Amino acid sequence: MRSVEKNAKIYVAGHRGMVGSAIYRKLQKEGYSNLVVRTSAELDLRNQQAVTDFFEAEKPEYVFLAAAKVGGIVANNTYRADFLYENLCIQNNVIHQAHKNGVKKLMFLGSSCIYPKLAPQPLKEEYLLTGLLEETNEPYAIAKIAGIKMADAYRSQYNCDFISVMPTNLYGYNDNYHPQNSHVLPALIRKFHEAKVNGGTEVNIWGSGTPMREFLFADDLADACYFLMQNYSEAGFLNIGTGTDLSIKDLALLIKEIVGFEGTLAFDSTKPDGTPRKLMDVSKLHQLGWKHKIELKEGIKLAYQDFLEKHS
Ligand code: GFB
Question: Looking at the whole model, is its pTM more than 0.90?
Answer without folding.
Answer: yes
